[in-house]
Amino acid sequence: MGKLDVRPLRTVLFCGGDRPDDIDRAFGSGADSIVIDLEEPRTPFPESEREKARLIVRSFLDGAGPGPVIFARVQPATTGQTLKDLRAVMGGRLGGVLVPKIESPADVHAVDALLGCMEVEHGLEMGTTAIYPILETAQSLRLAYEIATASPRVSYMGGAISRFGDIHRAVGFRWTLEGRETLFLRSKVLIDARAAGIRYPISGMWAGDRDDETGLRAWCTELRNLGYFGMMIGDPVYVPIVHEVFSPTPEEIRYWSDLDRLATEAERTGNRVIYGDPNQGEGHVVHIAHVESARQNLEWARGLGLVP
Question: What is the pLDDT of residue 277?
Answer without folding.
Answer: 83
